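Fold this: Profilin
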Amino acid sequence: MSWQAFVDTSLVATGHVAKGAIISIAGDSAWATSPSLTIQPAEMKVIADIVSGNEAASDKARAEGLYIAGQRYVVTRVDEGNIYARAGREGVAITASKQAIVIGIHNETQQAGNATLVVSALADHLKNTGY
């Protein structure tokens, strides 16, 4: 399965994620994204720094917000390679695997918990297949 197919079928097609992306664990490239989601290089680097355990990056995101495709999200939780953040009634769940970071954005009609489960399941699948 291609990286784009993972985003399209394992994230968005579930109905629990409105937009998704898979980026490298280093935060230096996007492997696949939803058509309406453009994550800037600086945004990817910040996400990668946070999931790698960089406390300074986590503290800055908590204080100033986490930006994804220009949208500011308020960080609600960071733990062990996971980031959860909200922008009003929308939100984002981010989970790292060995070589990738899975990003799932849910809209106001979707449940944060369901989006988190979908993102985590894809990250677990990638871990189990060596990614």
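The longest strand covers residues 71-79. The first helix runs from residue 3 to 11.
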